[in-house]
Amino acid sequence: MRRARLFLGTYMQDVRRQRNMHLTNSDWTQNVDSPLTDAKKQEWATYRQALRDFPANVSNYSEEDEYIYFPDPPDYAGDADISDIVVPTPTPEPAP
């Protein structure tokens, strides 16, 4: 889950401000000339609807919470298990 630290201001203003930021950052997904397939556009549309509904569902958080958890965008790998990922070690250049 993506978490967002609350900013200064009233609690619901913070929630809406950050929600609007996520919506703005995903506007490109719904453009006619977007490189996404129709299926991916639909996934993003569903995500964007969840963001629009989020302030109404925020009652399970309290103002004392340091973080709130927004819906995850499609293909978000933030919580994925990365134990199987192998990063190659760079080979040093031979000495002249």
What would you say this structure looks like, in words?
- The chain is an alpha+beta fold.
- The chain is built from two helices and two strands.
- It has helices at 11-25, 38-53; strands spanning 2-5, 67-70.
- It has a two-stranded antiparallel ribbon.
Major sheet: order of its strands?
1-2
Count of strand segments: 2
**Low-confidence regions:** none
Biggest β-sheet, characterized?
Answer: 2 strands, antiparallel
Q: Bin the helical content.
A: 25-40%
Helix and strand composition category: alpha+beta
Helix/strand order, N-terminal first: EHHE
Summary of the model, kept short:
This protein has 96 residues and is an alpha+beta fold. The chain has two helices and two strands; from the N terminus they run βααβ. It has one domain (2-70).
Topology:
Blueprint: E1 2-5, H1 11-25, H2 38-53, E2 67-70
Antiparallel strand pairs: 1-2
Keywords:
single chain, 96 residues, alpha+beta, two-stranded antiparallel sheet, 2 helices, 8% strand, extended
